């Protein structure tokens, strides 16, 4: 039986900024995320959460250690290869929804697939399917300005999952939402996770981290296991 590699494997990851004096945002981070996990990484402001997310999402490069994504050593990839892997295999959900105000919800979701060169009709069908999955198909023709905060985040989640990514990276995804709306968005993540999607959530909110199947804490650039 062939064992598939973990989605994410970090070994001794460090990220240093500047030289005089240098700032170590991450120090000796070891992390393995298996397929189908929902991992929450919690920590206060300045703890290194965003730096870690940028490295996981191939938006930044570590200054120490190794990172294998789905078995691929990403240190050996050229910029164009990293961008291609990121667009194919990683979905992002941010605190700010980043929806284009003058485009409909459906068009916003379809735009995430434009570089994959699918025919427009197929992109529309895929976008409607993604919106249905997050319970927002009835708002497909609305402009984002007509949506509530929770509905905007659902649209952003649909856009992020449109390309069937291997992992969904979420950076404070409920930071702009009230407690009731937060709970409904976490229900969406739970359903996506049950369908097999690997999710990594970066948060400073304990109740958000509690919904994940595994929880870690980051402090001063170092990962701690609360278990």
**What is the arithmetic mean of pLDDT?**
91
Main sheet: strands, sense, barrel: 6 strands, mixed
Number of helices: 7
| Helix/strand class | alpha/beta
SSE string, helix = H, strand = E? EEEHEEHEHHHEHEHEE
- Counting DSSP E segments of at least 2 residues, the number of strands comes to 10
Q: Helicity level, as a percent range?
A: 25-40%
What is the general shape? globular
Enumerate the strands of the largest sheet in spatial order, edge to edge or round the barrel: 6-7-8-3-9-10
Please tell me how large the radius of gyration is.
Answer: 18 Å
Q: End-to-end span in angstroms?
A: 31 Å
Approximate strand percentage: 25-35%
Low-pLDDT runs of 5+ residues are: none
Descriptive keywords:
single chain; 227 residues; alpha/beta; six-stranded mixed beta sheet; four-stranded antiparallel beta sheet; 7 helices; 26% strand
Written description of the protein model:
Helix 3 crosses helix 4 and helix 5 runs parallel beside helix 6. The chain has seven helices and ten strands. It starts with 7 loop residues before the first strand and ends with a strand. The protein is α/β, with parallel strands linked by helices. A six-stranded mixed β-sheet has the order 6-7-8-3-9-10, sandwiched between helices.
């Amino acid at each position: 039986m062939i064992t598939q590699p973990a989605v994410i494997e970090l070994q001794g990851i460090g990220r240093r900024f500047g030289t005089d004096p240098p700032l170590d945002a991450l120090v000796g981070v070891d992390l393995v995320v298996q397929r189908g996990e929902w991992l929450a990484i919690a920590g206060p402001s300045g703890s290194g959460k965003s730096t870690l997310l940028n490295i996981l999402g191939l938006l930044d490069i570590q200054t120490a250690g190794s990172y294998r994504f789905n078995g691929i050593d990403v240190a050996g990839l050229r910029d164009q290869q990293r961008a291609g892997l990121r667009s194919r295999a990683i979905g992002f959900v941010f605190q700010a929804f980043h929806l284009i105000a003058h485009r409909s919800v459906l068009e916003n979701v379809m735009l995430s697939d434009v570089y994959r060169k699918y025919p427009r009709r197929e992109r529309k069908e895929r976008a409607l399917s993604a919106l249905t999955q997050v319970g927002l198909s009835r708002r497909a023709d609305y402009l984002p300005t007509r949506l509530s905060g929770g509905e905007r985040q659902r649209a952003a989640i649909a856009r992020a999952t449109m390309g069937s990514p291997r992992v969904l990276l979420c950076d404070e995804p409920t930071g702009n939402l009230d407690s009731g709306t937060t709970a409904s968005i976490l229900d969406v993540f739970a359903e996506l996770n049950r369908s097999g999607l690997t999710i990594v959530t970066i948060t400073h909110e304990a109740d958000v981290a509690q919904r994940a199947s595994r929880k870690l804490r980051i402090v001063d650039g170092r990962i701690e296991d609360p278990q």
